[in-house]
Design brief:
Layout: H1 3-11, H2 20-28, E1 35-38, H3 46-53, E2 58-63, H4 66-78, E3 84-88, E4 98-99, E5 102-103, E6 108-111, H5 123-126, H6 144-153, E7 162-168, H7 177-187, E8 191-196, E9 209-214, E10 225-230, H8 248-260, E11 268-272, E12 291-294, E13 297-300, E14 311-313, H9 314-317, E15 318-322, E16 337-340, E17 355-357, E18 375-378, E19 386-388, E20 396-398, E21 402-407, H10 414-421, H11 424-433, H12 444-448, E22 451-453, H13 457-495
Parallel strand pairs: 1-2, 1-6, 2-3, 6-7, 8-10, 16-20
Antiparallel strand pairs: 4-5, 7-9, 8-9, 10-11, 12-13, 14-22, 15-21, 16-17, 18-19, 18-21
Catalytic activity: a 2'-deoxyadenosine in DNA + S-adenosyl-L-methionine = an N(6)-methyl-2'-deoxyadenosine in DNA + S-adenosyl-L-homocysteine + H(+)
Pfam family, one: Methylase_S
Organism: Companilactobacillus huachuanensis
């Protein structure tokens, strides 16, 4: 807990080169008269970065570890701090910054809480006497929104007051109670900006994080809107894959984008609260470049033209069923069923090499079996893998990283649909919908909404047939050219008189 800062105390106190805190401080727009709170100060060096700028800054901070708080107090004294108050306590259970039975209010709350940590809520949280969780008790799986709610509760209503909170990207799209809390924060217009950062922003953490900036008093031009900013690794000078060291120039530029509140292609986008989709707040849903690289070629994406396309959602065309969550105990060499995994999806599926299994429990295996003319596609990991089942198969299921698309009627041709799902348009749309910082996933609800062109079945069959026929001709021509390449190479090596030493296989 707080190991990164502990190491700094131990090795080189108050002189670290970590730049993430500098970015947070820059975004907070701290004034010398501001009262500042960091309710989880043991997980960063934020308060010390602030004190280095102004030793007289009014700072209140809390952390659960008594020994660490004592070390922090000594460090603050070493910096000449005159208005710093450090408390020992677990802030969600018992905030210590209380006056006359009420939470003390601050101009700025800046905090990097434990990222994605599972929580065990006490009665003090479930029945909070300070009304810090008016939008609901956050999920126990991850405490991101508990710390966000706690930060908002400590903000005053002064113009310019704000909370700057670091969260794991998953907090921006998880369902359940987290989704309800996000929606209410959008409805109450508390979220000003969300800044997405690449893996390595938090040192030695193999996850991507985002910075949420919230305020009780938005600037006039941002009321009813949220700014999304996307910072990709390619935009930064850092070379390390494990940790990012933001330069002063990069911090200044990110802060400028935040202050400018302008649309910048591929970087910044202002989105009306009414256009927030399904409480999904991940930045890449709203900020993206119009130029993509798909299947080895550059593609210009004109999203506005999608509105004019006659289309229906994919859910009207097919039934979408997720595969079976196979466990090792179900696998057996003499099993009754076989299962297709992502790695099995190739130009031709080798059914003889598939894993065999028997079904345990009361699960209905028919729900997961595939049949001729089904389309299977990956929704986790390598999301570009799609396969049309063009032959009759028996007792073959799909695993949980795949979905089965089964046509609802004869209005669509399965081969045409598979070709469409492999198109650059679909690959771009699925890429925009994907979530997850380490393993990419496509939410089923987004797959259901995927637009499918409305065309007559005869036109579909003709264009699919024409494409496959021409594609076969091209493949044959390419194979012939490859054989010719090998022949002229053999002739060259014969003339070099080296084929006695090598044998071309």
């Amino acid at each position: 807990m707080g190991s990164r800062v502990r190491n700094q105390f131990r090795n080189n106190p108050l002189n670290s080169k970590f730049s993430f805190e500098n970015l947070l401080v820059s975004l907070a727009d701290i004034k010398s008269c501001d009262k500042i709170l960091d309710p989880t100060f043991g997980f960063s060096e934020l308060i010390f970065k602030i004190l280095l700028n102004n030793k007289e800054q009014k700072i209140t901070a809390e952390f659960i570890d008594e020994r660490f708080v004592a070390m922090g107090y000594i460090a603050a004294l070493g910096l000449g701090a005159t208005h710093t108050k450090l408390y020992t306590g677990e802030v969600l259970d018992e905030p210590m910054y209380v006056q006359d039975g009420k939470l003390e209010q601050f101009d700025k709350v800046i905090t990097m809480p434990p990222i994605g940590q599972k929580l065990e809520y006490t009665d003090n949280v479930l029945d909070d006497k300070y009304n810090r969780f008016p939008f609901g008790i956050p999920s126990r799986k991850s405490g991101d929104w508990a710390f966000v709610s706690n930060a908002i509760a400590a903000l005053n209503h002064n113009l310019g007051s704000k909370a700057v909170v670091v969260v794991r990207d998953g907090a921006l799209f998880r369902g359940g109670m987290d989704s309800n809390i996000r929606q209410k924060m959008v409805d109450y217009d508390l979220i000003e900006s969300i800044i997405s950062l690449p893996v390595g922003a938090v040192e030695d953490a193999a996850i991507s994080v985002s910075i949420i900036i919230l305020t009780m008093n938005k600037p006039e031009k941002m009321r009813g809107k949220i700014q999304f900013i996307n910072i990709d690794r390619e935009m930064l000078s850092t070379k390390s894959l494990r940790s990012i060291e933001f330069t002063d120039e990069e911090i200044e530029q990110i802060t400028k984008w935040y202050h400018d509140k302008k649309d910048v292609e591929g970087i910044s986008k202002i989105v009306s609260n009414d256009h927030i989709k399904d409480t999904q707040l991940q930045v890449k849903r709203y900020v993206y470049s119009t130029l993509y690289r798909v299947n080895g070629r550059d593609v210009q994406f004109h999203s506005e033209n999608l509105k004019d396309m006659k289309k229906v959602p994919l859910s009207e065309v097919v039934d979408i069923t997720r595969g079976f969550n196979l466990t090792a105990k179900d696998e057996t060499t003499d099993g009754m069923y076989q299962i297709i995994k992502i790695t099995d999806i190739k130009d031709k599926i080798n059914y003889h090499d598939l894993t065999y299994f028997n079904l345990s429990g009361n699960a209905d295996v028919n729900r997961y079996l595939v049949q001729k003319n089904d389309i299977i596609m990956a929704i986790r990991g390598n999301i570009n893998k799609i396969k049309w089942i063009d032959e009759t198969v028996y007792n073959v299921a799909i695993n949980s990283n795949l979905v089965r698309l089964r046509l609802k009627n004869d209005k669509y041709d399965p081969l045409w649909l598979r070709l469409y799902l492999n198109s650059p348009l679909v690959q771009i749309l699925l890429g925009k919908s994907s979530v997850g910082s380490t393993i990419t996933q496509i939410p089923i609800r987004d797959l259901e909404k995927l637009p499918v062109p409305v065309l007559c079945i005869n036109a579909q069959r003709k264009m699919a047939s024409d494409f496959m026929e021409k594609n076969d001709e091209i493949n044959k021509a390419m194979n012939k050219l490859e054989l010719e390449r090998q022949e002229i190479g053999k002739k060259l090596y014969d003339e070099m008189n080296i084929t006695g030493a090598i044998e071309l296989l």
